[in-house]
């Protein structure tokens, strides 16, 4: 069964390119981004892992840990990392999980339960569903799920933007509008009464519609 927003992120123990981890323990009190790959040595994923490595400092600033997962054994991902550095200009600076028995992919609903056998004998096309991004909160709940097709590289700037929104709305009773970027105006949550809003936003708000109250990003003050 596929996982969705609000579900518990399955815990697991796994071998990675940086040693053995217990996933929930590894996350700790941080946020986390788990993104999956059908196989090592695939061209689109090579560009993705390289780009993610280049913007990792932005995730670090936000207290977000990054981890990738491939069905290939850890040794294959370690070799793949050399190609990523050589072609993308940035060394992989986060762990890559080796999910050779598909256990994690199945737990996260990315592969059917009946998939078995040597992962290196399966083509990337056979593992096409392994093109997911999960954002996981410190409470170990899934906050975002994105699924991309094989032919389309993922937009990790968008993942970073969503993290900004998730972290803001986790602490403030607001929502973020379309195309929102950190520091832009936000929408006061519908659960907040006008009386409570006046206390929190004494300078008032814009109200282009009876059900839309727009204020400055409270975290930008």
Strand adjacency order, main sheet: 5-4-3-6-7
The general outline is elongated
Number of strands: 11
Compute the separation of the termini in Å: 43 Å
Helix and strand content put the structural class at: alpha+beta
Textual characterization of the structure:
By secondary structure, the chain is an alpha+beta fold. It folds into 2 domains: 13-154, 3-Layer(aba) Sandwich (Glutaredoxin); 172-220, Antioxidant, Horf6, Chain A, domain2 (Antioxidant, Horf6, Chain A, domain 2), CATH 3.30.1020.10. Helices cover 30% and strands 22% of the residues. It contains 6 helices and 11 strands. The protein has helices at residues 23-27, 43-61, 74-88, 103-107, 156-171, 194-200, and strands spanning 13-16, 19-22, 31-37, 64-70, 96-98, 132-136, 142-147, 174-175, 186-188, 206-209, 212-215. The chain has a 5-stranded mixed beta sheet. The chain has a 4-stranded antiparallel beta sheet with strand order 8-9-11-10, covered by helices on one side. It has a two-stranded antiparallel sheet with strand order 1-2. The longest helix has 19 residues, at 43-61. Keywords: Antioxidant, Oxidoreductase, Peroxidase, Redox-active center. Belongs to the peroxiredoxin family. Prx6 subfamily. It comes from Paraconexibacter antarcticus. This is Peroxiredoxin. It holds the Pfam family AhpC-TSA.
């Amino acid at each position: 069964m596929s996982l969705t927003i609000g579900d518990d992120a399955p815990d697991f123990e796994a071998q990675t390119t940086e040693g053995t981890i217990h996933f929930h323990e590894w996350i700790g009190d941080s946020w986390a981004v788990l993104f999956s790959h059908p196989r090592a040595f695939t061209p689109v994923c090579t560009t993705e892992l390289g780009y993610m490595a280049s913007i990792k400092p932005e995730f670090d600033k936000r207290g977000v840990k990054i981890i990738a997962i491939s069905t290939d054994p850890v040794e294959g991902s370690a070799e793949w990392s050399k190609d990523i550095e050589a072609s993308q200009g940035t060394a992989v600076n986060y762990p890559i999980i080796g999910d050779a028995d598909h256990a994690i992919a199945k737990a996260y609903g990315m592969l059917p339960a009946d998939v078995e056998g040597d992962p290196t004998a399966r083509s990337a096309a056979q593992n096409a569903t392994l093109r997911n991004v999960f954002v996981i909160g410190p409470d170990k709940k899934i906050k975002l799920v994105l699924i991309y097709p094989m032919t389309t590289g993922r937009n990790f700037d968008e993942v970073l933007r969503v993290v900004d929104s998730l972290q803001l709305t986790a602490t403030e009773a607001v929502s973020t509008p379309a195309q929102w970027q950190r520091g832009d105006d936000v929408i006061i949550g519908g659960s907040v009464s006008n009386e409570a809003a006046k206390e929190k936003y004494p300078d008032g708000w814009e109200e282009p519609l009876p059900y839309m109250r727009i204020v400055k990003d409270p975290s930008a003050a």
